[in-house]
Write a structure and sequence with these properties.
Length: 133
């Protein structure tokens, strides 16, 4: 689910098509997880409405917490590090890989805060109004 964060981290070093591919992989994971969880709900309850509510919850949560927010966050971290390196006028070829190293290193630190924030957002919006518990 976090393949796009890897793609964003490696963006300074790889062709853009690989970054786009990392998003395709992450979104594929989101849809697979949505299908899995909604089908489990339907098998358990045989209630199509409840299954669809679960699908909506899962796809929304996963797109925010696994794709959009982390991808944007890593993108901006790598961008800022790259700008800082350019401003410092460091020319050694090693410095070209520093945004990637920092981006990869930041992934474990952003996951929990993003997941928690998305849970709170979903609890106050989608889940609150559609009565998903």
């Amino acid at each position: 689910g976090y393949s796009n964060e890897l793609g964003e981290s490696f963006r300074p070093l790889i062709d853009k098509k690989w970054v786009v591919g990392s998003y395709a992989l992450a979104i594929g994971y989101v849809f697979a997880d949505t299908y899995d969880k909604s089908m489990k709900e339907y098998t358990k309850s045989e209630n199509i409405k409840k299954s669809m509510l679960v699908a909506g919850d899962v796809v929304t949560w996963q797109m925010l917490a696994s794709v959009m927010i982390p991808g944007f966050t890593i993108n901006r971290i790598c961008w800022a590090v790259g700008k800082g390196i350019k401003a410092s006028k460091l020319k050694h070829k090693f410095f070209k890989s520093v945004p990637t190293i920092i981006g990869l290193s930041s992934i474990p630190f952003i996951i929990h805060p993003i997941d928690t924030a998305v849970d709170k957002l979903m609890d106050e919006t989608y889940r609150k109004y559609l009565l998903i518990k």
